[in-house]
Amino acid sequence: MVSATLPSEAYLPGSVTRSVKILVVGPFAVGKTTFVSTMSEIRPLYTEESMTAASEPVDDLDATPGKTTTTVALDFGRRTLNDQLVMYLFGTPGQGRFEYLWRDLARGALGALVLADTRRLDASFAAVDVVEGLGLRYAVGINQFDGAARHPESELREALDLTPETPLVTCDARDHSSCTHALITLMQYLLTTSGPRGALL
């Protein structure tokens, strides 16, 4: 009989009584998998598959020519916020053909962080439309890729057609501190917004 010992971080403290589910959404190659990996305290679950020639006509690689894999189901991570509360992060596939998965993953979600890339802001329009159609409150995080242009917040808000109350933050999906700031901004917005989803699970 072979036994295995799981790392201590695999287990939640016994004091945890509440959880919150957050979606991390956005277009193809915007950094969702990286964001979930950066924020997860456990080894994240990935559903990455190698890209094939069949995807070349539909997956735009102009801004990310070195990308060789893509999420085909979800990314999953966990972050314990305090002794009683844990956050579960669900990263969605970016391509429109996986939109049906977004709808399934959105069940029970408190809100969403929509990641965007200034090199192709128009690619984020569909993600915002889907999140709004699902009735989820959300914040937008501009993932600052190396070499990408920087723009004033007012220009970004106008380009993304955001309402004044929708939080807009910048982050680097590789950096824990800036990702934490993005999630804190989202959570503060969600916890001060009334509505049927405005309570922790």
Give the count of structural domains: 1
Order of helices and strands: EHEEEEHEHEHEH
Backbone shape: globular
First-residue to last-residue Cα separation:
39 Å
Number of strands: 8
For the report, how would you describe the main beta sheet? Answer: 6 strands, mixed
CATH class descriptor name: Alpha Beta
Sheet with the most strands: spatial strand order:
4-5-1-6-7-8
Number of helices, counting only DSSP H or I runs of 4 residues or more: 5
Using the CA coordinates, give the radius of gyration.
Answer: 17 Å
Write the CATH architecture name.
3-Layer(aba) Sandwich
Explain this structure.
Helix content is 24%, strand content 22%. The strands form two sheets. It has a six-stranded mixed beta sheet, sandwiched between helices. Strands 2-3 form a two-stranded antiparallel ribbon. Helix 4 (153-160) links the parallel strand 7 and strand 8 (168-171). By secondary structure, it is an alpha/beta fold. It is globular, with a radius of gyration of 17 Å. The chain has helices at residues 32-39, 99-105, 125-133, 153-160, 176-191, and strands at residues 18-25, 48-50, 69-71, 75-80, 85-91, 111-116, 137-143, 168-171. It has five helices and eight strands. It has one domain (16-47, 70-193): Rossmann fold (3-Layer(aba) Sandwich), CATH 3.40.50.300.
